Automatic annotation (TrEMBL):
SUPFAM superfamilies: CoA-dependent acyltransferases. It comes from Oncorhynchus tshawytscha. Pathway: Lipid metabolism; fatty acid beta-oxidation. Its EC number is 2.3.1.21. Belongs to the carnitine/choline acetyltransferase family. This is Carnitine O-palmitoyltransferase 1, muscle isoform. The keyword Transport applies.
C-alpha cells in the first residue's frame, strides 16, 4: 500500500564509532528498547486480560497473550524465495549476477545479522513492527500527504442527509460511541474469517493521536481521553467541546455547534488560511517552524488544541461524491480526500474527518500508527450507526432536542509573523506540486464480482491480482516488481507483509493470453498462477514472507556498520505496481443482501513510483469490485484512466476463459 513508497531507498545514520564490541552494544541497546516498549504495552492491557478470566464475554484484547510471536524465517528460505521472485524480471545474465551477490550475502554477512535478529525476536514482542514504524514512517523527511496518508470514502450510492452539519453531527457522535467502546475494550476481538484471533494493538492509537514533527525523526503522541474536537472551515480553526454535563454531546447538539461554525462569517487571521499546509510539506521545515513560532503564547495554545484533540474535522465548502452522470466524479472525490487543497486537512492527526456541503463524507488517515483495515473497522461501525441506529428527521436534521444553552465553539487565536507565513507558503507550494501531479481514476467494475469468481473455484484475490498482471503487461509491454499488502495480525503486534505478485507462473499465464494458445491452455496456466499466488499469500500471512525479514536484516546491517551490496539492491528496487485489497464487512452490521445500496466505496492511496501505479481494490458483495487507481501526470508512461480500462478488459478476458470452458463442457 502507501507503505511501499517509503520502503524504497530509505536511509538513516547510526552515529556510533569504535570497535565491533561497541557496535554490538549499540544493537543490544535498541533490542532492549524494543523489549521495553513491548512490555509496557502488555502492562496497559493487563486489566482487560484479567476480565477475560472473570467469566465475561471476550473483550477486545482477550486473546492478545495467546497470539504467537512473529517467527524469524531462515536466511536460506528468504534468499531462495527472493531469487524466485525476481527471476521473471531479470534476463539470464542479470539473474546470475544477482544469484552470486545473494549467495555471497548468505555465506558471509547474513549469519551475524540473523543472530542479532533472532535475539531481538526473543526479547521484543514483534521483531519487525517497531522498526517498521520508525524507519518506514517516522524517519521519512518527505511530505506525508499523498506519499503516505491514505483515504476512505463514504457510502457509494446513499447519502442519508444533504445537511452538512447534521451529517457531521451524527457521524461525530457515532465516532464518540466507538471510542468509548474502544476505551472500555468492549469491541469484540478481531478474528480472521470470523475464527482465528487477530492482534488488536493498532486500535489503541486511533483517537487522541497526532504525529509530531521532528528534525531527524517524528514521534507519535497518544493521549488519554480527549474531550474536544478541532474544526476547520474556510480558513478558520474552531475548538468544539464534545462533552456537556459529564456526557457526550447528542447528535442534535453537535449539529447545532457545526452549524454555528458554518454560519460564522469572520475572516481568517493572517497566516491562518493555509496554516495546515505545514503538515503537507516537507517535515524538517515544519519541525523548525513548530519550534520557532509555536512554542509560546497563543500559537502554542492553539496548536496544542489541535494536537491534543480527539481528531480533526474539516467542514469543506465543496461538493463531492459518486455521481453516475459525471465521468470524473469518483476521481475528483478521491483527490479531494487524498490531498484536498493541501491546507484544509491536518495531515498529522491520526485521521481527519471530511464533511462536504452536500452531506457526503470521507476520511484522510495518517499511516504510521496503523494500517487501513483498522480505520476501515471504525468507519464501518460509524456509517452503519449513522444510517441504521441514529437516523435523521424528515427534514434531514439530527434527531433529538436542541440545547440552546450550549456554549458556542471557540475560535482559535493565532499570531503568525510574516517569516512564518513565508514558511507556510513554501510548504503549500511543495504540497501543491505533489497534489497537482496525482492522476487518479476510480473504476466501478460491475460486470461480475466475487460470486461468479468463486463459482469458478478461484480465490477472488488471486483472480484480481492476475488481472492486474495482465493489465500491467498490456499497459506497458513489460512486467514489473509488484507489491501486494497482506496482513500479519495473526501474530502479536503484527502489521503487514508483502506478497510479490509478479511470478514466473503469472508471467507465463499473461504471455499465453497474448499469444495464440487455446483457451484450455490459458486456463491451465491461470490455475497454476492462481495456486502459486494463494500459496505466497498464505506464506506471507503465516510469517514466512521475505520482505520484512530482508528489511530487518538491512536495519541490523546499519547498526553493525556492515555494508551489504545485496541488501542495498533489494531495498532500493522500485515497486512500479503497488496494490492492496481493502477489507469489507469486518463487523457485519449491515446485511448488504437486504440493503444492497448501503455499501462503501472503499479507499485508496497515492502513486508509489514516479512511473508506476497504485491500485486499491475493494470486493463489495457478490457483484461489484471497485478499483482506486493512482499515478503521476508527470510520467509519460502512465495514465490512470487507461490502466483502469486495461483492468476492466483483463477481468473480462479471464472470465471469458471460464465461459468457454463451460460452453465446451455443455457441448461434450
Amino acid at each position: 500500500m502507501a507503505e511501499a513508497h517509503q520502503a524504497v531507498g530509505f536511509q538513516f545514520t547510526v552515529t556510533s564509532d569504535g570497535i565491533d564490541l561497541h557496535l554490538s552494544r549499540e544493537v543490544l541497546k535498541h533490542i532492549y528498547l524494543s523489549g521495553v516498549t513491548s512490555w509496557t504495552k502488555r502492562a496497559i492491557r493487563f486489566k482487560s486480560l484479567v476480565k477475560m478470566f472473570s467469566g465475561r464475554r471476550p473483550l477486545l484484547y482477550s486473546f492478545q497473550t495467546s497470539l504467537p510471536r512473529l517467527p524469524v524465517p531462515s536466511v536460506d528460505d528468504t534468499i531462495t524465495r527472493y531469487l524466485e521472485s525476481v527471476r521473471p524480471l531479470l534476463d539470464d545474465e542479470q539473474y546470475n549476477q544477482m544469484e552470486v551477490v545473494a549467495n555471497d550475502f548468505k555465506k558471509d554477512q547474513a549469519p551475524k545479522l540473523q543472530k542479532y535478529l533472532i535475539l531481538k525476536s526473543w526479547w521484543a514482542t514483534n521483531y519487525v513492527s517497531d522498526w517498521w514504524e520508525e524507519y518506514i514512517y517516522l524517519r521519512g523527511r518527505s511530505p506525508i500527504m499523498v506519499n503516505s496518508n491514505f483515504y476512505s470514502m463514504d457510502l457509494l450510492y446513499v447519502t442519508p442527509t444533504h445537511r452538512q452539519a447534521a451529517r457531521a453531527g451524527n457521524v461525530v457522535h457515532a465516532m464518540l460511541q466507538y471510542r468509548r467502546k474502544l476505551e472500555r475494550r468492549e469491541h469484540a476481538p478481531l478474528r480472521a474469517l470470523g475464527v482465528v484471533p487477530m492482534c488488536s494493538y493498532q486500535m489503541e492509537r486511533m483517537f487522541n493521536t497526532t504525529r509530531i514533527p521532528g528534525i531527524e525523526t517524528d514521534f507519535v503522541q497518544h493521549l488519554s481521553d480527549r474531550k474536544h474536537l478541532v474544526v476547520y472551515h474556510k480558513g478558520r480553526f474552531f475548538k468544539v467541546w464534545l462533552y456537556y454535563g459529564g456526557r457526550h454531546l447528542w447528535p442534535s447538539e453537535l449539529e447545532t455547534q457545526f452549524q454555528r461554525i458554518l454560519d460564522d462569517t469572520t475572516e481568517p487571521q493572517p497566516g491562518e488560511l493555509k496554516l495546515a499546509a505545514l503538515t503537507a510539506g516537507n517535515r524538517v521545515p515544519w519541525a523548525r517552524a513548530r519550534l520557532k513560532y509555536f512554542s509560546q503564547g497563543v500559537n502554542k495554545a492553539s496548536l496544542e488544541a489541535i494536537e491534543t484533540s480527539a481528531f480533526f474535522l474539516s467542514l469543506d465548502d465543496e461538493v463531492h461524491g459518486y455521481d453516475p452522470d459525471k465521468l470524473r466524479s469518483l476521481d475528483l472525490y478521491a483527490k479531494s480526500l487524498l490531498h484536498g487543497k493541501c491546507y484544509d486537512r491536518w495531515f498529522d492527526k491520526s485521521f481527519t474527518l471530511i464533511a462536504y456541503k452536500n452531506g457526503k463524507l470521507g476520511v484522510n488517515a495518517e499511516h504510521s500508527w496503523a494500517d487501513a483495515p483498522i480505520i476501515g473497522h471504525m468507519w464501518e461501525y460509524v456509517l452503519a450507526t449513522d444510517c441504521f441506529h441514529l437516523g435523521y428527521t424528515e427534514e434531514g436534521h439530527c434527531k433529538g432536542d436542541i440545547n440552546k444553552g450550549l456554549p458556542p465553539p471557540t475560535k482559535l487565536q493565532w499570531d503568525i509573523p510574516l517569516e512564518c507565513q513565508e514558511v507556510i507558503e513554501e510548504s503549500y507550494m511543495v504540497a501543491k506540486v505533489i497534489a497537482d501531479d496525482v492522476d487518479f481514476h476510480g473504476c466501478l467494475f460491475d460486470e461480475f464480482g466475487k460470486g461468479l469468481i468463486k463459482k469458478s473455484r478461484t480465490s477472488p484475490d488471486a483472480f484480481i491480482q492476475l488481472a492486474l498482471q495482465l493489465a500491467q503487461f498490456r499497459d506497458k509491454g513489460e512486467f514489473c516488481l509488484t507489491y501486494e499488502a497482506s496482513m500479519t495480525r495473526m501474530f502479536r503486534e503484527g502489521r503487514t507483509e508483502t506478497v510479490r505478485s509478479c511470478t514466473s507462473e503469472s508471467t507465463a499465464f499473461v504471455r499465453a493470453m497474448e499469444d495464440k494458445n487455446t483457451s484450455a491452455q490459458k486456463l491451465d496456466l491461470f490455475r497454476k498462477a492462481a495456486d502459486k499466488h494463494q500459496n505466497m499469500y498464505r506464506l506471507a500471512m503465516t510469517g514466512s514472507g521475505i520482505d520484512r525479514h530482508l528489511f530487518c536484516l538491512y536495519i541490523m546491517s546499519k547498526y553493525l556498520s556492515i555494508d551489504s551490496p545485496f541488501l542495498k539492491q533489494v531495498l532500493s528496487e522500485p515497486w512500479r505496481l503497488s496494490t492492496s485489497q481493502t477489507p469489507q464487512q469486518q463487523l457485519n452490521m449491515v446485511d448488504i443482501k437486504t440493503f444492497p445500496r448501503y455499501v462503501g466505496a472503499g479507499g485508496g492511496f497515492g502513486p508509489v513510483a514516479d512511473d508506476g501505479y497504485g491500485v486499491s481494490y475493494i470486493i463489495i458483495g457478490e457483484n461489484l469490485i471497485t478499483f482506486h487507481i493512482s499515478s503521476k501526470f508527470s510520467s509519460p508512461e502512465t495514465d490512470s484512466y487507461r490502466f483502469g480500462q486495461n483492468i476492466r478488459q483483463a477481468m473480462l478476458d479471464i472470465c471469458a476463459l471460464f465461459d468457454q470452458k463451460d460452453k465446451n463442457e455443455k457441448e461434450m
